[in-house]
Amino acid sequence: MHKIIGRNISILYRNEKNYADIKLKKYNLNKVQAEVLIFLKHENGANQTKINEFFLFNKATITKIISHLEKYDYVDRVISENDKREKDIYLTDKGRNILPIIKEILNEWEDIIINNIEDEDIEKVKCILAQMVDKITKLKEQE
């Protein structure tokens, strides 16, 4: 049973990533980079540590993502006023302007996979997945 859950989550993730990557390619973005931009919409000025804590990436991965976003002028890195060793990440105008397109693409995918599924079932799945993520987050914090 556990293998089935992981397998199904993996299949959904890979297909969502492929769908979004194709749609976002013309903007020099992929799904993961787009998700970081969405995070920054709500946490503009977050540093890489905060982004790492949210996504559970390793530091090298988030550095690569931020470098790419900076290269294409979606974000700026600014030395933190609180800690000169840290850089805060801010959306640029271009980064803010791409957000509606990203949301539309991700909503299209969600519409595809939840079509003809009852709202209450969708809410149950969201709650269960959130519980699973909470468990993983707690395990990561103990490492």
Automatic annotation (TrEMBL):
Superkingdom: Bacteria
Domain HTH marR-type: 1-134
UniProt cross-references to InterPro entries, sorted A to Z: HTH_MarR-typ (IPR000835), Tscrpt_reg_MarR-type_CS (IPR023187), WH-like_DNA-bd_sf (IPR036388), WH_DNA-bd_sf (IPR036390)
Membrane-spanning parts: none
GO terms for MF: DNA binding; DNA-binding transcription factor activity
Entry keyword set: DNA-binding, Transcription, Transcription regulation
Presence of keyword DNA-binding: yes
DNA-binding listed as a keyword: yes
Protein known as: DNA-binding transcriptional regulator, MarR family
